[in-house]
Amino acid sequence: MSEIKGQLLGIILTIAIFGVVLAAMVTSFGKMSETVGSRVEEIATTQVSYTSTSN
User: Fold this and answer.
1) How far is CA 2 from the centre of its chain?
2) Could you report the per-residue pLDDT of 35-54, keeping only the tens digit for each?
3) pLDDT value of position 48
């Protein structure tokens, strides 16, 4: 009986660890997508002027 309890505990701990890693990755990717989105928007709205230097 204790062997089954040990296996169940291992399964539960494994699922918990994967859950924590998944939550951290979702949060990280969410923040990164916001950062990239704001930088892309900033670059898209930047005015660029071109001055010709030909003789």
Assistant:
1) 39
2) 998 888 888 887 777 787 77
3) 75
DSSP state of 30: H
Q: How buried is 11 (Cβ within 10 angstroms: 0-12 exposed, 13-18 middle, 19+ buried)?
A: exposed
- Distance CA(13)–CA(45), nearest Å, equals 48
Instruction: Give the Cα separation of 20 and 24 in Å (integer).
Output: 6
Q: Give one DSSP letter per residue of 5-50, joined into a string.
A: HHHHHHHHHHHHHHHHHHHHHHHHHHHHHHHHHHHHHHHHT-----
Q: For the whole model, what pTM was predicted?
A: 0.62
